[in-house]
Amino acid sequence: MNIVSIAPYLPCRGIPHAGGEFYRRHADLVAASHSVLVVAPRNAENELALERDAEASYRRLLVTPEQPQGPVRAGYYFVMSRVAPFLAIRPFWRALVADPAVLSALRQADRIELQWFNALALASRLRRALPETHQVGVFHDVVSQGQRRMFLTPGVSPRWRLVALVQLVLALPLERRFLRVLDTAVVVSEKDRALLKRRRGRARIVVVSPPLEDEDMPSGPGVRSLGPPEVLFVGALDRLENEDAAHWLINDIWPRVISEVPDTRLTIAGANPSAHLRRQAESAAKVTLTDYVDSLSPYYRRASVVVAPMRLGAGVKLKSLVAMLWGLPVVATSVAAEGVTGPQVFYAVEDDSADFADAVVAVLKDPSSADDVRARAFEWSHDSYSTAQYRRSIEQLYPPRALPGDGGRAETVTEEP
Question: Which range of residues forms the domain containing residue 204?
Answer without folding.
Answer: 2-211+386-397
